[in-house]
């Protein structure tokens, strides 16, 4: 076989066959098509490469302006054997009674491999990449890796009251710059005693940051109370019944990420935070550039932060695989020299994220109600440009190579937009106040002398959940049904960000496990309309029955 020199083009995430490629995306000569078809017989993935060797036959033509030369282009073979990956995931999660299978044309699904009773736990699915919404950070202090509440009941309440007192809350709109300044100050404030000047500084920053918080109806507590809640001076009655792990600072020194444990801090550092940390031990190329990227994301769409995490996750995995590979090479130099090129390592690193792919963000995002149908094209151009701006900022901050194109960035953002990825963790503050409320009359009266004014100061939204977006690799394989047999449901003991799937009725071996992506009590028309965002028309038994 004749050796050829190749350069990589970019990643095509669609599961395209060579024939489809020929029809839609690339001009491929018939001889190339034959080669590709031959390759697909023997491997799960194949590559579209641009050949630099002029004489070679294997040329994917230049007429692909949407793929800049520097990108890596990987074409996933149709129905690629991804199932080994899922088997491994299920094994890691100690979950032997379900399987991920491809049963029909609608893609993969999760199937029971044993019987489940009503109410039984089907799966706990740890987060692959996830984040707390920026605005939610004012309400909840959680571990940046597992999303458990941390600190103490007093600290959770004190922070919330502090933000209310300076006029920021989850509902208050802030621009990115203010947000960064505030969040930095507040984390400082939350963990150590507050300095007077930090108060002043924050006040200045917030002057133009209007708050629509419900706090206007609340009865504020004196500043000293807020301070002593945050610095541990005031201990609330019975709060020891609700112990929280103490907050551990980021090893990179950023004062933005906090953890419930050393192991969470280390795991996050290894997986992505080392590249996204703005602290002095950050592994990013430029902390200044990184701050600009974060500011842009906080001011526009915080989903960019999650996309950046997914990219850093892939880069970190790639570097680790490469390190392992080089070690292996030293031990026995000739082994695996062929299948462990940089590219196959990158492919391997990219695998977990690639399974979540649905479509490009700017193509698939639902048109907002206030955008006229005739302006759709320009709306999509605009958000594409927004993503481009974000990517340029991110590139300046972390990339040493041009590994990721706008196309890929768009696909990653799209994946978070289109999957059913809500991250919710209930607040222990709610449990705390319910506990006080349930105390015997005398004890309750005594406790309420202290807790009542605090509850009044917090107001109606006294216990906001931790809310965010996350990618759960196995939950995302579960298909939708309007009469599902399972649902994502957190039990009392489920106190972190993992997805918990519970059987809603008995499920027999071999049956598909389904969840509802929407409110299944809506009417047929409303349900179909809600599902448009997910890009399919539901044909579950309920829909078939109710179909007009
Ligand atoms: Zn944690
Ligand atoms: Zn950090
Ligand atoms: Zn349906």
UniProtKB/TrEMBL annotation:
SUPFAM superfamilies reported in the protein's UniProt record: HIT/MYND zinc finger-like, SET domain
Record keywords, A-Z: Metal-binding, Zinc, Zinc-finger
PROSITE patterns for this protein: SET
One Pfam family cited in the UniProt record for this chain: zf-MYND
InterPro entries registered for this protein in UniProt: ATXR2-like, PEX22, SET_dom, SET_dom_sf, Znf_MYND
GO molecular function term, any single one: zinc ion binding
UniProt domain SET: residue ranges: 96-518
CDD domains: SET_SMYD
Keyword Zinc part of the UniProt annotation: yes
GO annotation terms (biological process): peroxisome organization
Protein name per its UniProtKB record: SET domain-containing protein
Source organism per UniProt: Acer yangbiense
